[in-house]
Amino acid sequence: MSEMMIKICGLSTPETVDAAVDAGATHIGLVHYEPSPRHVSLEQAAQLRRRIPERVKAVLLLVSMEAQPTVEALQAVQPDVVQFHGKETAEWLAVLKQHTSLEIWKAIGVKDEGSLERALKFRGAADRLLYDAAAGKLPGGNGLALDWSLLAHHRHEMPWGLAGGLTPDNVAEAIRQTGASLVDTSSGVESEPGVKDVDRIRAFCQAARES
Ligand SMILES: O=C(O)c1ccccc1NCC(=O)[C@H](O)[C@H](O)COP(=O)(O)O
């Protein structure tokens, strides 16, 4: 059986990055989006990125940024993965893909089966789709779950991951229902918006790994 991939998103302190790595996270997400309570500047993101050991992937999350600032952010932070969580088009991601060896992920807000069908326009432009709840107050990180039953019998044509409202208490059931091999959480491991809880990070990683 292949290893469960676990992304802990929205980390903003050295202590919580270290805790997530120690707990067995395979991906660490850094959110560069000013309206988010998890926002980190490019300087902070670059510093946090340097703490992440080679075996763990650093994911830089950007939202609907113009081309030039996107390139500057990638140069500043040097992530392993860039996760686009806004209104980025497949055409733009395809152009970027020609100029970078980074893994490119595209978040998809899932409302219904049509959302899954429409996401296929990112085939060839993104390396992975990250299914999340549809945008709420923020484009992501709202602690809202999507309807897992939509993924239960879906024939996936691209690598994918599951996000949205996952917690230490529900992640095992989410994996059981959807068959996800990559799970992503942010609010579910926080004590308040933007404040990560080390015990919850550990509990989430354990529950995901043991499922
Ligand atoms: O986390 C944020 O604040 C955020 C802001 C803007 C766009 C995306 C954001 N987070 C994206 C993530 O990868 C989250 O882990 C994902 O949306 C799940 O969040 P949650 O439902 O809070 O677990």
From TrEMBL:
This protein's UniProt keywords: Amino-acid biosynthesis, Aromatic amino acid biosynthesis, Isomerase, Tryptophan biosynthesis
The keyword Transport belongs to this UniProt entry's keyword annotation: no
SUPFAM superfamilies for the chain: Ribulose-phoshate binding barrel
Species name: Croceibacterium atlanticum
Catalysed reactions, semicolon-separated: N-(5-phospho-beta-D-ribosyl)anthranilate = 1-(2-carboxyphenylamino)-1-deoxy-D-ribulose 5-phosphate
Pathway: Amino-acid biosynthesis; L-tryptophan biosynthesis; L-tryptophan from chorismate: step 3/5
Enzyme class: isomerase
Highest taxon of the lineage: Bacteria
Family: Belongs to the TrpF family.
Signal peptide segment: none
Record InterPro entries: Aldolase_TIM, PRAI_dom, RibuloseP-bd_barrel, TrpF_fam
Protein's UniProt name: N-(5'-phosphoribosyl)anthranilate isomerase
Assigned EC number: 5.3.1.24
Gene name of the record: trpF
Transmembrane segments: none
Entries under Gene3D superfamilies matching the protein: Aldolase class I
